[in-house]
Amino acid sequence: MPILPRLRNAFRHLRDSTPADRDLDLELRAHAEMLEREKIDGGLSPEAARREALFETGGIEQVKESVREVRAGAFLASVLQDLRYGARTLARTPAFTLAAIVALALGIGASTAIFSVVNAVLLRPLPYRDPGSLAVLLHKGRNPVSAPNFRDWQRESRSFAAMGAAQGWQPNLMGGQEPERVEAVRMTSEMLPMLGVPPFLGRVFAPIEDEAGKDHEVVLSHALWRRRFGADRGLVGRAISLDGEPYTVVGVMPPEFRFPPFWQTGAQLWAPLALDRNPSRDGNSLRVFARLKPGVPYAGAQAEITGLTGRLEKEFPGTNRDVFVRSLQETVVGRVRPALLVLLAAVGFLLLIACGNVAHMLLARSAARQKEVAVRTAIGASRGRLVRQFLTESLLLALSGGAAGLLLALAATRVIVSIRPLGLPSIDTLSLDVRVLAFSLVISIATGVAFGLAPALASASRDLSESLREGERGSTEGRGRHRLRSILVGSEFALALILLVAAGLMIRTFVALQAVDPGFDPRHVLSMVVSVSGSPSVEPGRRGVFYLRVLDRVRALPGVRSASFINHLPLAGDIWGFPFAVEGRPAPPRGDAPTAAYRVVLPGYFQTMGLPLRRGRDIASADRLGTPGVVVVNEWLANRFWPGADAIGKRIALGGGGDGPSDWLTVIGVVKNAARSDWTAPADSEIYVPLLQSPRYLETRFFAVEYLTLVVATSGDPAAAAGSVRTAVHSIDPAVTISEVQTMEHAVGQANAQPRFYLILLSAFAAVAILLAAVGIYGVMSYVVSRRAHEMGIRMALGARRADLLRLVVGQGMAVALAGAAAGLAGALVLTRLMSGLLYKVPPTDLATFAGVTAVLIGVALAATWIPARRATRIDPMTALRAD
Amino acid sequence: MTAQTALLQGTLDLLILKTLSAGELHGLGISRRIGQVTHGAFEVKPGSLFPALHRMEDAGWLTSFWGESAAHRRAKYYRLTKSGRQQLKAETEEWGRVSLGIAMALHAT
């Protein structure tokens, strides 16, 4: 059966089962029976009577069809009439219409914008085959895993269809123009087939390629392939130079492919990872990904891994504790979900406030339209017809507001994407897709019905004679309607208060974050990553010389006060935790040694960063290979291990145990605690060793030790010095790459980007909310005053003083506002708990915030009722009484 | 819609309104009454009667309800509304003007 007739049939079936249609059927059958009875009474036989009756009726189905046609036409005509009438009514009051559309556009726009973020980040599945069965194996929190552990887990577990490992990599891409440092990932050959995304060009890695010596192949991201290689399809099979070595391009991934979805999120190329045959179980650098076998739940895999790592832990103590199997999706979005849900709730409240506002504007207007309604009812318009008319108007308003809101959302999402809030995964895939459009359409219609229904029912159900009377006389308005509006405005205040509390808590959090002391002084400091990979300067004999020459050249630049190098910059860089031993203390069991963040610096780092040296001396140029090993520690370490004693002269050894005296490092200085990778992380042990005493950084050929971060303190704007510093570095070796050029203030800003993002959004929502609530109460009180002008006139004529009237009106308005605020406080007490993950050093029920925003809200309510109240006192009693 | 059918439709509406102005009736009753008062000049078939009734009900001139016929059978009855009466008045005046005009036109030589 072709589709069209089938559809028509289905439609007919649907239509035939409506009550109206069944009613029509009954009516026609009754008609035919009566006709038949008439004929029998006239002397016809029952058969003949039935035949003639049917003949005269002309076929019940045909009659039904023509009735339906008439009805459908009438319905369509009346809908068109409603639309025309509604549009005309709205156009007649442009100020009202504009105000309503603006309020709705703000509510719907904000909701759509936040929903599009939620859609991109939380709802859209990760772009891999069957992402629901992908898992991550995490070691002690979110720490990486060692190669032998990965191999053991991979070999011995049965829950997984595949398991692979990946490791971050930042090679220098040579050739072409200037060399460039790119974000990349090395991964075992299981990874790409496991993700199940076929390459756009060429192929992915074969298992053989993760053998040492055969790992010089590379798969490019679509973006890098286009940007750097002009989308040349002939590139596959040719070699490119990474860190000065040839890598054969075997494939290009499709444009939407991103991996990994957390941690190294900007990877632009992927290469095979050859795992060392005999590495240490302490060297943790791998991220382990896996795909569950069909039917195996995460809990089942976790149980197996717990048993497996328990056995391994017995064999290799301290290396297999706390290993967790988590869903990849959850690992990616788990941290941001609460924050996004808070934002979604906030925009939901905003939308409700906007709805409330438009609802009572419509109520006020419908009161003014009572006469019109009364007249239309008098000439026979049914109640349903009137409700439909009012709803058509509300929907017209809501859809116009929705359309404007969509434009607003489009602009807002552009801004959100451009500020790239850190830590929001897949935010760059944000777009207004079908789901977002459907969302905004649905909420537009829902809001239209929500704010339109109450006024429509209120209008349509009014007693005719009452409205005719009331319309004529400027008496007080009906009780029920007034209460409805008071409830609406009160609710607006309640919701606005909750939003204000949320924004207030974020402001307090932000103030607390600003008060955090990073230890160093971020002002006037410029930083950039200098990588010698693949350049002539990478050679063991030349690396140290290169760094020293760069410092000489940069320090000589005008406007530069000092300069130095560090391996990992605080906040912006990596953190390597190294186990260490303290001289004179018994060695703890394996795996329980204290660890310290491992920093490698050149002389002048502390001075450049403004990080105060508390005791002892800075690392000097004389501290070089061949001289006794020295180390600078932070205060936290010094106080922890030598409390009450002078740390200077004490000795520590890296790597867990001092085998010989040459490994002992003597503490020569103690510096203030500095921020680590996370702005609010508590202080922990840090050690600073001289670069010139570190063979690892001077000689080892491994990408992770072939770059350093140059820090430069300037007398003027640090950003302005970037060009000359860059030129100075390249004048010594043009083949090194310079990346991540930023001021330290920017790095600090980035560290707080996420709370700032939530602060800005919540504050903006709260500001709009309080504005709408103020407009709401202003509107209601103005209306009350204008409706009660007559009564005010009488009161004044009877001797009421202006102060009495002022108190009367303000009192009435404030009663509503205060009731709303009280409800809002109760709601906020419950709801702000959900925010606790976003807050820093502020409890979700912070008294100062609650008190402060309540005061603000009451102030706004007072101001908004004061203006109409003043108007009431200016009523001339004679004019008011004569007005009728 | 041509002028002729509009006129015919208007005529039927007017006849139904007039018939119901005397009291409520079901479909067959309306059809029989129109046949009686016009001495058989108009025979209203269900195919035009029911669409007209439903259209007029939608327009708010008529309301309907289920009741019992003289023969103790359930039947749907129609009744004029306030706006139906106004409509009858307006259409009667209109009809008077039109028929007078037509009569004059036909008698003119």
Can you describe this structure in just a few lines?
By secondary structure, chain A is of the alpha+beta class.
Strand content of chain A: 5-15%
Largest pleated sheet of chain A: 11 strands, mixed
Widest β-sheet, arrangement of strands of chain B:
1-3-2
Uncertain residue segments of chain A: 470-476, 657-661
Shape annotation of chain A? globular
Write a concise keyword list for the protein shown above.
heterodimer; A: 884 residues; alpha+beta; six-stranded mixed barrel; 27 helices; B: 109 residues; three-stranded antiparallel beta sheet; globular; disordered N terminus
Question: Could you characterize what this model shows?
Answer:
The complex is a heterodimer of chains A (884) and B (109). With 884 residues, chain A is of the alpha+beta class. Chain A has 27 helices and 24 strands. In chain A, strands 1, 2, 3, 6, 7, 8, 9, 10, 11, 12 and 13 form an eleven-stranded mixed sheet that branches. Chain A has a six-stranded mixed β-barrel with strand order 16-17-22-19-21-20. The model of chain B is unreliable at 1-7 (pLDDT under 50). Chain B has 109 residues and is α+β, with helices and mostly antiparallel strands. A three-stranded antiparallel sheet of chain B has the order 1-3-2. At the A-B interface, helix 2 and helix 4 of A face helix 3, strand 3 and helix 4 of B.
Task: Show the helix and strand layout.
The complex is a heterodimer of chains A (884) and B (109).
Chain A: H1 3-16, H2 19-41, H3 46-57, H4 60-92, H5 94-123, E1 134-139, E2 145-146, H6 147-156, E3 160-169, E4 172-173, E5 180-181, E6 184-187, H7 191-195, E7 201-202, E8 217-220, H8 222-229, E9 239-242, E10 245-252, E11 269-272, E12 284-292, H9 298-315, E13 323-327, H10 328-333, H11 337-368, H12 370-378, H13 383-419, H14 434-460, H15 464-472, H16 479-514, E14 525-531, H17 543-555, E15 560-566, E16 577-582, E17 595-601, H18 605-609, E18 613-616, E19 630-634, H19 635-641, E20 651-654, E21 665-671, E22 686-690, H20 695-698, E23 707-714, H21 722-732, E24 737-743, H22 744-751, H23 753-787, H24 789-797, H25 802-831, H26 847-873, H27 877-882
Parallel strand pairs in A: 6-11, 8-10, 17-22, 19-21
Antiparallel strand pairs in A: 1-12, 1-13, 2-12, 3-6, 3-12, 4-5, 7-10, 8-11, 9-10, 14-23, 14-24, 15-23, 16-17, 16-20, 18-21, 19-22, 20-21
Chain B: H1 3-21, E1 25-26, H2 27-37, H3 46-58, E2 62-68, E3 74-80, H4 82-107
Antiparallel strand pairs in B: 1-3, 2-3
Helix pairs in contact in B: 1-3, 1-4
